Amino acid sequence: MTDLPGVTMSVPSRLGVDARFEDGELTLDLTPQPETLHHGIVRASVLSYAIDVVAGITVDQDPDVWTLTTDLSVRMRTLPAPEHILVANTILRAGRRSVTCKVELTIDDGTPIATGAVGFVRVPRRETDAPKPLVTPELAASFFRDLGTLSRPLREEAGSR
Q1: Average pLDDT, integer, range 121-139
Q2: Averaging pLDDT over each range in 3-17, 41-55, 140-154, which range is the top one?
Q3: Distance, CA of 37 to chain centre
Q4: Domains of the chain with CATH codes
Q5: Percent helix, percent strand, percent coil in the chain, to nearest 5
Q6: Please, what's the largest Cα pairwise distance for the chain?
Q7: Which of 18, 74, 81, 139 has its CA 20 to 30 A from that of 55?
Q8: Residues 6+ apart with CB under 8 A from 56
């Protein structure tokens, strides 16, 4: 996860994502907006971002190790965008060199809308590497508060042609 919110011009910081840290768990709340939809469905890229963020921040807690996303897949139902999506991570396997997570995306009544599988590799940080910023789940939750949303469709904001 390479782009934390905080810079107000950052596209990811304006996708309608909010974060909570409760009972020792980081969860994301995604509020779909017209700018992040395609034919009334939340874009897979928006869901991918939420999956990578919730899992990546959760597993990247060692200041001496870089945690890099190695693979990520999204399986989503083609449903009209709900008002709200809850994004929750489960660590399936955490080894010394790799981590595998499953991320569930559900609507308010618990109905699944998508599932993500994401893998990470852990690489020891060398002394010559730049300092590693450590973002705890508690701190991450504060990064997502009171952010604006996109003012134009995501493709335009991202500069896609």
Answers
A1: 92
A2: 41-55
A3: 17
A4: 12-158 (3.10.129.10)
A5: 20, 35, 40
A6: 49
A7: 81
A8: 1, 67, 69, 118, 120
